[in-house]
Amino acid sequence: MTKLNDKSPTPSELFRHTHQRKKDKSWVDQSSAHVDCKVDGINKGKVYGIGYKSTKVIGKQSYQDSTSSSVQVMREEAEQLKNKLLAVETDRDHLCDRMFNNEKEIKQNNKMLHLLMEKMNFQPPEI
C-alpha cells in the first residue's frame, strides 16, 4: 500500500486491504466482517482494538483468534471448571459418607429390633 500512496497505511486501511476483495470490497470471510475496524491506538508498534473478539454462542465463550488475552480467558475458565469439579467431588464424597453411616445405623437398628422381639417372645404371624 505504501507503494500505491507513498505513505504508510493506517491499521484500519491495512486491515481492510488484506481482508477485503479488490473487485467488490466484500470481506474474505465472516470473521473479518465482524472485526471492529475502529482502532483505539498504536503504542510501541502494537495495534490495539482489532485483535481480540469474543462472542457468546449458546452460553459458551467462542474465540475468534488465539491472542494472549483469549488464551488467558480460556485459562481462567478452565480454572473455574476445575474448582467446580472439586466442589462436586467433595459433595459426592460427603454424600457417600452419609449413605455409609445410614446403612450402618439401619443394620444396628435391625439388630436391636430383632433382640427386642426375641425378649418379648414375639412371633410373627403366619401367612
UniProtKB/TrEMBL annotation:
At the top level of its lineage, which domain of life is listed? Eukaryota
Q: Where do the record's region annotations for Disordered lie?
A: 1-30
Question: This chain belongs to which protein, by name?
Answer: Putative transposase
What organism is the protein native to? Answer: Vigna unguiculata
